[in-house]
Amino acid sequence: MNDFLVDKTTKTVSFSREFDAELSLVWDAYTKQELLDQWWAPKPWTSKTKFMDFTVGGRRFYAMVSPEGDEHWSLQTYTSISPKTNFKLLNAFADKDENPELPGSEWDLTFSERNGKTTVRISIYNESLARLEKMLDMGFKEGTAMNLKNLEELLATLSKQQ
Known about the structure:
Blueprint (H helix, E strand, L loop, with lengths): L4 E3 L4 E8 L3 H9 L1 H7 L6 E7 L6 E7 L5 E12 L3 E9 L5 E15 L2 E10 L2 H9 L2 H22 L1
Antiparallel strand pairs: 1-2, 2-8, 3-4, 4-5, 5-6, 6-7, 7-8
Helix pairs in contact: 1-2
Family: Belongs to the AHA1 family.
InterPro entries: ASHA1/2-like_C, START-like_dom_sf
Protein name: ATPase
């Protein structure tokens, strides 16, 4: 992740990452609960999905769980899905009872494959500058870099199993 960009004028964060894995495997890692929970949290935190319905209008409700058991919940609602090329979602922090903490952010994830390598481009628009700054203050850049490293390792393991 060398192109992490923060644009405060558009309240957007964007970045991309190339993985040494086929598109279908990377797509699955982003869209299947059992795979997401293996990489979607910076270590030593873990990801715990309570439910996930990867359909337009469907939702994922999950927590990042600290080693001490602290849970930080988020609610994602899928707004658009073009299989294996793009999906969009609304993301909001939430309490344990699924009540979103608005404003949230709009995520746009685009997938492409070239010569057996898959690139994921992510753009995150925040409804407010305060939310963007809160996200960055919470360590979003560093956490995302750790998550993507987790994903890289998972993809390497899964690629060997195919």
